[in-house]
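--- STAGE predict ---
source: upstream dedup step, 1 unique chain passed
mode: sequence only
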Amino acid sequence: QVQLVESGGGLVQAGGSLRLSCAASGSIFRINTMAWYRQAPGKQRDLVAHITRAGSTNYADSVKGRFTISRDNAKNTVYLQMDSLKPEDTAVYYCNVAHVDSFLRSSNYWGQGTQVTVSS
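--- STAGE serialize ---
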């Protein structure tokens, strides 16, 4: 089992910045793709950004140029630097990791979510 602990959410004014962190722990063999999703009230959970183990990144159009995803493989941690925040970025943010065990079985894990609120 892999556990994910997120941190860094909070309340910020429009134009401000926040940095989210998600640390994985437990029976880790290999973590491949790490990602951040978000879910606003009454809406579906959408992909914000993902990063491969090699460092290739992909972003939702709505956050390109404002958010930066990064990872530290030695710490099994993924980060999301969020700049120029807008009220429409308000949501619960979830991290997600794709894990492969020593038997090459793939599993997907979710964090508990962290609230980000951007005031206008």
